[in-house]
User: Fold this.
Amino acid sequence: MSLLERLEKVKTGTPDTDGTSQPDDGNGGVESSEFVRSAETQLQKPVASSPPVTTSDTDRFYFLKHTLFDDLLGQIDPKTTFEDANLLRVHLEGLIGELDEKNQLKITRDERNALTNEFVDEIMGFGPLEQFLDDNTATKITVNAPDDIWVERLGAIEKTDRRFRDADHLMTVLQKIAATIGGRIDSKVPLLDRKLPDDSRIRAKVPPIAANGPTITIDKFNNNPFDSLKRQQQERQRSQVAPYYALKEKVQDRLVQKMDPELLSRGQHSDRLRSQVEEMINTAIQEDNMAMSRAERSELVGDLLNEIAGLGPIEPLLNDPEVSEIMVNGPFQIYVEQHGKLILSDKRFRDNTHVMQIIERIVAPLGRRVDEKSPMVDARLADGSRVNAIIPPLAIKGPTITIRKFSKDPFTMTDLVNFGSLSNDCAQFLKAAVEGCLNIVVSGGTGSGKTTTLNVLSSFIPTDERIVTVEDAAEVQLRQEHVVTLEARPPNIEGAGAVTIRDLVRNCLRMRPDRIVVGECRGGEALDMLQAMNTGHDGSITTGHANSPREMLSRLEVMVLMSGMDLPIRAIREQIAGAVDIIVQCDRMRDGTRKLTYVTEVVGMEGDVITMQDLFMFKQEGVDDRGKLKGTTIATGLRPKCLEKIIEHGVKLPPTIFKSG
Assistant:
């Protein structure tokens, strides 16, 4: 039967040839009025003697979708949660085929694929809006009516051919959005205005305050604003309903009440603490009549020990030698760095409160605090790993922790050579530069290996010299015996008592240091450091953030001006040229490896310009099969001016190491 013939029978209520009438829609009619409107639109009200006049592909597509809409979605249990889009797609293709055969719609393969994707968006996403939510170029979505959808891309606003079936369909999607973000929208609460964790904004209105029907505006950034939100909610729901987590919390509460406080002081490796945890787990399992394998019990014991005597979910990551950095972005997202690459971990916190407990456990032994009044803190772990924490209201997605781990056995120069970070000739020169009391600045970007390089260079300082280190959070690992470590102190709760790095640099000058090692210069302390280098404290080492040796000099100028001293630029540059001998540039390459890309000598002044010469530089030779950069640090062929100073200190270097090539 043709679509025209079917439409006529629907309008007149004429039975089919087999004597059966059209199916009732439950509202007293023989077919939904929606079918009649869609069919008339498709057929363009043709004259009876003429063939049907087809409309555009878009009109036919939406006619097909809206014809199948109720029948198809009616066969999907709304309580069913689909996690695999591919399985859902297979299921939908089968249903569309059955309905096509039943309604004789003659759906093509391309139309079936498009309809399948459309209904996947209806079930797993937000219907017609899903395409624009996933579009990285779309920054604003505006729905003024079911068939009036506008999108802003790269500053240009355009009307789309996407459409909802009717106002009820649009209202259903709005309520689904409201439920996802923890809100509500209906006739009693007709306004929704909510900001999402990524700063996207949802604004929706429905009758009675929206006279022309439901509307919605979504201001978004590159990614789908609901993806991370859904992921967080799934993790939260899983942690709340899973028997494993319920049992874990039950046993943990008992341990807190009954535990011997002395066991905590002995740490995670106490046999008595482990025995107590295992005993309580067995008791809880028997009480709840739970089935749990030996592996699951062992995992539960480890998790509880980490919660009680460690740092919770991140404790295994801290003990993993392959992990060099841990980044906690709220309770449900933990990234780690392995071999220079960022990887999403399967570890999770319960909620924001759980993360805050771990932060407090880190900073409390150091006499530091973190709260709404002081929402940022720098700290260190017992092994020297550096910790930064920032909490709401500054951290929108929840408490955030960044941990830069340091090797239990500090890297040596041999390790760096074996890693390919520098050549053996370059390593010999840097060793001689430290032993020859040259002042060295290690520059580079965040995560480029500055602190590791600083530790390696500091290991060449002779053991008979007195070393004073100054840092924000102590992380320099020196193996010499005569070392004094100073650490800056933030202000107390009254805002007083702060001790800055600049204060410590000034103080260490009175401590009879042979070498001064400053963890990082980032402000006015640069002036005091330069003055120390120029007044008898040769062989001092510090680090700074810069993208090249030349830029490091500019950064030093800016930092000196930050001291508040009104010095002419030439005077500052003369101080720098007289103080700094060598700049070592570290870079993190695109494959995640760290390289010493430049070893540059500061030669002196020519007019108002500081002159420099590159002694060694990294030369890339291609990429291997694993995507790793191939190359080495080669000499430029220039003889360093500072070589005489190195020789004066009794350090000998083979002249061949400066040979070009």
Notes: The chain has 22 helices and 21 strands.
